[in-house]
Amino acid sequence: MAVLSIRTLPDPVLRQKAKRVRSFDKSIHRLIDDMLETMHSASGVGLAAPQVGVPLRVIVIGIPDEEELALINPQIVRKTGERLVNEGCLSIPGYFAQVKRAEIVRAKGLDRSGKEIRLRANELLAQALEHEIDHLNGILYVDHLESMDELRPVEPATDELLA
After folding, report:
1. What is the domain extent for residue 29?
2. Residue 58: CA atoms inside 13 Å, Cβ hemisphere, count?
3. What is the mean pLDDT of residues 90-119?
4. What's the structural domain count of the chain?
5. Alpha carbons 103 and 136: distance in angstroms, whole number
6. For residues 140 and 137, what is the distance between their CA atoms, to the nearest angstrom?
7. Per-residue model confidence as pLDDT tens digits over 17-57
8. Which amino acids are annotated catalytic?
9. Mean pLDDT of 147-158
10. CATH code assigned at 23
11. In a domain, 2, yes or no
């Protein structure tokens, strides 16, 4: 496994719509493993392939005290409710803002072997799913803000979502 370089704004790969994964070969398994290692190294809870310069529809999520998740070609099937959450991003280091996210998210995707996974998520997992799937569509959390003036600098030792 390897720690990959995380792309930051204004890198154009962050604004591209990622391509669907068509084959589940060793390169996808290696990408997932490298993304997990990179996410842990950066102390994040999620990472999308475009954030490491790979324009494919692959995300990983690692919420403390929960099983790690890798989803290929994920999509949100349904969102319910709305809440304000503090959110940051490894591709926009040093800042966070309050963003509207769903209370409950239903999503589906494929695991590393190509088997379908369906999820019903709330709290941090729901937020991470929305955030990472946004990345696959070239959307960053700052796009949900009315103004960039809403960004706040991250204080050291914060527990904000970094994905």
Report:
1. 12-162
2. 27
3. 96
4. 1
5. 21
6. 9
7. 999 999 999 999 999 999 999 999 999 999 999 999 999 99
8. 132
9. 81
10. 3.90.45.10
11. no
